[in-house]
What does this fold into?
Amino acid sequence: MLRTRHKSVVFMGIQSTKKKVLTKRGVIWLGQTCNLRCHFCYFLDRINSSSHPEHAFMSLDKAKKICSTLVDFYHNNSIDIQGGEPTIYPGIYELITHCRKIGLLPTLITNALVLADIDRCKKILDAGIRDLLVSVQGLGETYDKIVGVPGAYEKQAKALENFQQLGIPIRFNCVLCKMALPQLSDIAKVAIAKNARVVNFIAFNPFCDQASGKRSSENVPRYNEVTPYLNDAMDILAQAGVECNVRYFPFCMVAERHRKSLYNFQQLSYDIHEWDFASWSWTGLTPQRTKDGDVSQPVTLQEATVSPIFLPSTLQHSVGLGRRIANALPIIKKPIRAVYRGMLNWYQKKKRGDSLDSLYRQNARMRAKEHCKYAYGECCATCDVQSICDGFHGDYAELFGAQEATPIKIGKKIDDPQYYIKEQAKIVEEEDHGWAC
Ligand code: SF4
Ligand code: SF4
It folds into this structure.
């Protein structure tokens, strides 16, 4: 083991560090076409409906244009390529090579079924893939049930063998749905056996298509039902030195020793394998997710962050008036937009200082509060980490209430989003050593 600057450690050839920096990773959705039907998929309706505007894959030219904006406007240096399922995208090899060429290190977020064919693995390797984030949602028949396709696990298992044989770096994603819970420890063991560098456990949340009545107490586990399985799986990974992250889960619902691995919205930006809020705000917009039509103008993080409801009433009035004038007279849309941007920049600097970290934090809070309607239980008011915790997802609180919340007592109020995660060592790939370690 070799110690380096910034509390970094090299273990079995992989460098990890406790230093935390803002991520530079972008994301692209090529189209919601997939060979599986996971019951918790955020895009299930779009995948099931071939007439949905986001269903069909976009052209390679449009995908390349989005990638160029990620580099030129957002200064991203890596990218998560998603479909639906990106391995069935016709131009996938060319897109991987293109991303490499323009300075975006490419990861595929994949169910990996297609990669049971070792020749396909060789092709993505030759094209320039950096690593794969494999969605391991369960094992054996349970996996097949979760993803809705018999025989799927067998193919995924073969693909995992291929990656090991060819030395393709992998990380795991696993959604914390009810069926998967009894297998979390075994999934952790498979991750270790297959040399996964990271395992992410992700709360089953009602994002996108899951917001429309598919979730119930039948498929969503209560947090305290998740807790013992999660603690055990995290212990196994910790013992083996494999990085583990848990997304969108209240701090009080895991053992204290694991809180350093919990990523609520305020912590997400400090995981360099997560998405940059700035570019994510743009690629998440409809024009960047559809086959038809051109891409839209990039948005700045300020624009994506300052919701008019956070502005003082005089500025709210000006924004509303500006929008009405711009809509009535499209020719002056550009200058109005420039004034709006200037106003937001000014407001940001005046109210919250110029720090990028504070802007990302504000965006995180807006995502939790406005987009996801996160709520706190009554007792959260007495919790010392409330200011850095999202609380309970609004939809979860409606299903189960928020009585499970157990206030954390530290002896002082914590306001540093990195309070827990600064103790977590995260792996950093060689290409990122210069800025992230
Ligand atoms: S593999 Fe991914 S995109 Fe496909 S259905 Fe499952 S969650 Fe959705
Ligand atoms: S704020 Fe509430 S949900 Fe979050 S850790 Fe504290 S008690 Fe738990």
Summary: The domain at 21-289 is CATH 3.20.20.70 (TIM Barrel). Residues 250-252, 376-377, 380, 383, 385-386, 389, 391, 405-408 surround iron/sulfur cluster (ligand 2) (CB under 6 Å). The first strand starts at residue 2 and ends at 4.
